[in-house]
Protein 1
Amino acid sequence: MNNIANWLTMHIKDNVSDLTDLQLIKIKFGIECLLSEASKTIIYILFFSFLSLTTEFLVAFLFFTAIRVFAGGYHEETYWRCFITSLLFLGSCIFLGLSLNITIYGKIAIIIFSAIIAYIFSPVDHPNKPIISEQRRKKLKYLSIGVIIMLGLIGINLSSVYSNIAILAILVESISLILGYMKKKYVYH
């Protein structure tokens, strides 16, 4: 990913003359993130398709990532550690969602718990891209809570198995906030 991002960044630098070094660093970081996430997503789709769980994966992935965009969460240091951790997070949503029978009251409790966790911990930013503005932090916190509640309501209304997977994806992302907060506080500082 790094080599491809370097090559693309140098190609951009050669074709756009007025970019600063900081802008090039930001471009390279963005390309690395895009390539990393796209490649992982393609591999996950292939993996879960092989297991005949494509729709289940898409439900878990959409609910998990829709919250993560605003709330942030746990991050790994390397591509492969991130790949494995994300696979475990998404896989647990899918396989637990297929095997558990979560009642409506359990689902509501998970949504409330997740919203509280988001209120306490979100946003958990990436160490390479910290959120400096307190105003932006507050906005992301409330967006996270709103997205959790909205997705929770949607998730409750899905058919049984998909509902379980969606609600568990919300729960796993909220747990990711706790883990990310703890790692950021105790490992990076």
Note: The helical segments are 2-15, 21-50, 54-71, 79-99, 104-121, 134-156, 160-186.
Protein 2
Amino acid sequence: MDEERQLIVIVEDDSGLRRAVERLLRLSGFRTRSFHSAEDANVFELASTARCLVIDVQLPGISGPAFYGTLHVPRPPAVFMTAYEGGCMRRTIESTGAHTVLIKPFLGEALIDEILKATGAPR
């Protein structure tokens, strides 16, 4: 698999959480690239070719699910993060074909587990 397909793209507007997720993933052996919003330069190109995406639901500008829906099919698997749990929100995300939703705060181990499941990578 080429190098870009090993990349995990993180889109999270909270800078502290974005840095923490990036650090966790790098310490777990993943290559990462992070963005503040779905409208940042190069996010679409990198997200389209990434191995997996970790996306906040509520981003400034275009929402996480709306951004994910703009990616060309087949889309990389996505793990969404949100502080707001609700059936309508979950159905919206699932309708995009995303892998799962984690409710903030969540354990780092839960994020790693969901990425491994989403990508079919061995533990």
Note: Residues 3-119 form a domain with the Rossmann fold fold (CATH 3.40.50.2300).
Protein 3
Amino acid sequence: MSHIQVRIAAVAVLLAPLAACSSGSGPDTTVRSAGHGATEAARVRPATVTVVPEGRGVRAGVPVTVTAAGGTLTSVRVADADGHALRGTVSADGASWASQRKTAPGTSYTVTATTAAKAGTKSTTTSVFTTAGADKVNKVDWRPGTHTTVGIAQPVSLVFDHPVTDKAEVEKELKITTSDRTEGSWGWMKDWSGRDRVDWRPREYWKPGTKVTLDAELNGTDSGDGGWFVRDYSTTFTIGSTSQVAKVDLDRKLLTLERDGRTVRTIPVSGGTPGGDKRSWRGTAVLMAKEGTINMNSETVGLGDAYDKMVDHSMRLTWSGMYAHAAPWNDRWFGNANMSSGCIGMSTADAAWFYGQVRPGDPFEITGRDTKGTVAPGNGFGDWNVSWDQWQAKSALR
């Protein structure tokens, strides 16, 4: 990588011909003899500044470094055309400066460096470099949304448009800040859609009232085969003021809503029909969204033409199509038998009440002998079905 060396003409040198006639308080730089003039020129010689990278079309995704020889850096600013500056720090000896952020693709940066020469002369130099554009751009879909209030099991989840082959490089740019220093970890997986995804979950359920902030400073990060990120992402959300858990016992055909460890209400339900593809999932599912009245079509979940109907008070639990919802057509089975196509059905009255109590992020702890398996991490938010040690091992930085 080539260097720009910018030699800064000191103000004192430019004023030298006038010094004999001026009464200013600055240093006297009048040339008195050939030998003495050479000494004075050396004394006021400005610092040499070097900026990396330099030129046009340089590769993005690297930090900017500025170094000074024959003096020290007193300030450095590296900013794009919109005035957005890269954070950075000057070294303790003043000899160098390095940005904390990487350069973004397709961006022109102006570097302004102020130096102090050994003789005390201050000078400022400006240089410009431009990064090459991105051949492919990777984008992110993230949850939960900004300024939302969610339940105690809600993970932070990022799904990427294109594959992330350099997961460690991406994960280094992701930062979670919590109001109570919650312990947690990132874990990589395949989303149900087949796309790369990374979630951050606490070691245990969130404490009620915790405030959470995600800062994904991805602009200028190369995800590998999936291309470059060209923007940052952030979200701030709050955990609800109560610890709320829905416990679903498929053997007893009962759903119990617990709040702060106390039973609020127990509802008779009917789960998935045993012995085949209509069985329900077990383990911890997380309420993904309250979708209200929606059309449910069995063909979309691989169950042929078993049903096609509008369903009220629908609460999504997995991407594969398991919901809790009103199922008045199954009323004779509530509390008696599991006869649904995989969902947790209940009466319209019970579903209406329950729908009004729960929020996205609430955990559904589902147990039962005859189920089709445990909810996978990528099928909705099945992160809690992985032990803490196994979850930590999913981090690319472990």
Note: Helices lie at 11-14, 34-43, 167-171, 348-357, 388-393.
Protein 4
Amino acid sequence: MSSTAAESLIASRAGQARMDGRHVRVLRLWLGALALLIVAMILVGGATRLTDSGLSITEWKPVTGAVPPMSDSAWQEAFDAYQKIPEYLELKRGMSLDEFKTIYWWEWGHRFLGRLIGVVFLVPFLAFWFAGYISRALLPRLLGLFVLGGLQGALGWYMVKSGLVARVDVSQYRLTAHLGVAVAILGYTLWLIFDLGRESKGATRSGTSAAAWVAGVVLALIYLQILAGGLVAGMDAGFGYNTWPLINGAFVPSGLGEASPWYLNLFENPLTVQFDHRVLGYAVVLATILQSGWLAARRGAPELITSGFILMCLALLQATVGVWTLLLGVPIGLGLAHQAGAMVLFATALYHLWLSLERRAPAGRTQAAASA
């Protein structure tokens, strides 16, 4: 091969590398916007729950439901439908149309965000696919994200249906499942962002298998705590027992096992549900402290020590906000701050796990691939 041809080939590959880098940056911005929208939707969902707005729309119209009532007659029709469900008949009888509009807008906003996320995913996805920005390896992972989003919408309606016939609110089981899937979708999206461009990195390994196992346990505890928070929200268990650190004058109060069979206490006894949420919070804080100290004692990779320390600080802050929220009887602002803190804590724990799992190809292999 002539020197001119070799130089041309090198220049071409360098240009391709730059193009790949640009593709990665664009895809990260796109997925980052999606992740922010998912967080926004989770928070609006929390506000919808705290304002008792989740049952204000009694129909599921995935396409036409994007348009809110535009006339007095349309508003009255929506209000008439709401007046037929148990929540209105047993708890909200006498509500005015203007009061109904307030709760309607919360639920409409929550559903609108879901539709917006679908559009923000699908339109850029098709554009990036046709433009060649999406690799073969990434394509099925993105399609999986789209499918999960669609299933989450169906699960949301399944949750709402539980409160339209025989209950005055939605099932705490379905609400917790809806929240859990939303957080899982957020985690999946963030993992895609972390992984983008990873194959082009050099030879290092930022963690050990032991560090990965510890990080995985901490992440699992945080996710379990979020699910426990879903049960607390689903049963309005945060509005009672607003003292800390004791409940009814004891750290372990009586009445935790009143339901029968015993395991129903974990899901249907408000006292037990709140107690479990507290204990899991203590466990998360303790686990992050132990992980941070263990990483520092082992003199692990600097980025792992740093992320572990940040995670510990966030866990302490989240626990503080949680106690503050409880003591004040769950005001909406603090309740949403606590929920936002849970998302930040989860994202940080996920990134810490990603760092602990990160393995990169040996430098010799990377150079051999580049010269092939």
Note: The two ends are 14 Å apart (CA to CA).
